[in-house]
Amino acid sequence: MRSFLFVPGDSQRKFESAKKTAADALILDLEDSIAPDEKVGARRTVREMLDTRMPGQKMYVRVNALDTGMTLGDLAAVMPGRPDGIVLPKCAGAADVNRLSLYLDAFEAAAEIEHGSTRIVTVATETARAVLKLLDFENMSPRLWGMMWGAEDLAASLGASRNRTEGRFHGPFLLARDLCLISAAAAGVVAIDTIATDINDLDALREESIAARQDGFLAKAVIHPKHVDVVNAAFMPTDEEIAWSEKVVKAFNDNPTSGVVKIDGKMIDKPHLRAAEKILALRGR
């Protein structure tokens, strides 16, 4: 998957618009986009959204954080709708993932959903404590499928007056981004890039998305339907990358006992082969 489009859980209008996009997944939001006195009603709306999903489009639900006292109520309302996954905000390491996984065990059993089929995606950098816990995923539940980084809540946690200047993230936020990417790779799960907040600057979005993919992120969160096509295109390998990768794979196939091959005057070794194979795997997205 390349694009995760956030949809306010209380807006059927925005949901109908989101369904028409090419977003690989929708994140139906019960957290930040919902006013406190609207959260209970939003649960019912999200349940209705799950019942009217588009075939082939994944549906995730972002529940309220574990320390709010609302997580279980959120899950009770939405799990009968069989979401593909749950997005856990303010996640601080394996303990939070495993706690949510236990909740899902129970709700899957109650709704007669296949055990373990509901994925978990964490928003893993929203607090200073969460950033310090990024490496704490050694014994996490196998439900964990992806780790997303975010900069907006982290700014509040750090007491920062801003997180970027002229579209460029400041140092603490780049550190959180890079740690999330590295931690996801170490855990063997998908790294998901954060949203672009400037809705109208599609050139900046394209540049940011390409940079994220080149660094190793496999998907990006978006907050507006017109961002979806830009992100989807950016998270596909270019024709040049595919051609080079095919050349690398062919060279090693032609020399199966060699650990190093020469291509266009350059020495290419097995790490290049693994990188080429990953690029070619992305071609079928």
User: What value does the Rg take, in angstroms?
Assistant: 20 Å
Provide the CATH topology of the largest domain.
Answer: TIM Barrel
State the end-to-end CA separation: 7 Å
User: Main sheet: which strands, in order across?
Assistant: 1-2-3-4-5-6-9-10
Text of the CATH class of the largest domain:
Alpha Beta
User: Could you say how many structural domains there are in total?
Assistant: 2
Q: Count the strands?
A: 12
Largest sheet: 8 strands, parallel, barrel
CATH evolutionary superfamily of the largest domain = Phosphoenolpyruvate-binding domains
CATH architecture of the largest domain: Alpha-Beta Barrel
Task: List the secondary-structure elements in sequence, H or E.
Answer: EHEHEHEHEHEHEEHEHEHHEEH
Roughly how much helix do the residues carry, as a percent range?
40-55%
**Beta-strand proportion:** 15-25%
- Count of alpha/pi helices: 11
Mean pLDDT comes to 93
Shape: globular
Low-confidence stretches: none
Structural class: alpha/beta
In short:
By secondary structure, the chain is of the alpha/beta class.
Account of the protein in words:
The protein has 285 residues and is an alpha/beta fold. The chain has 2 domains: 233 residues, Alpha-Beta Barrel (TIM Barrel), CATH 3.20.20; 44 residues, no CATH class. Helix content is 44%, strand content 18%. The strands form 3 sheets. An 8-stranded parallel barrel has the order 1-2-3-4-5-6-9-10, surrounded by 6 helices. Strand 3, helix 3 and strand 4 form a beta-alpha-beta unit. Helix 10 crosses helix 11. The termini are close together. The model has no long low-confidence stretch (mean pLDDT 93). Its cofactor is Mg(2+). Keywords: Lyase, Magnesium, Metal-binding. This is Citrate lyase.
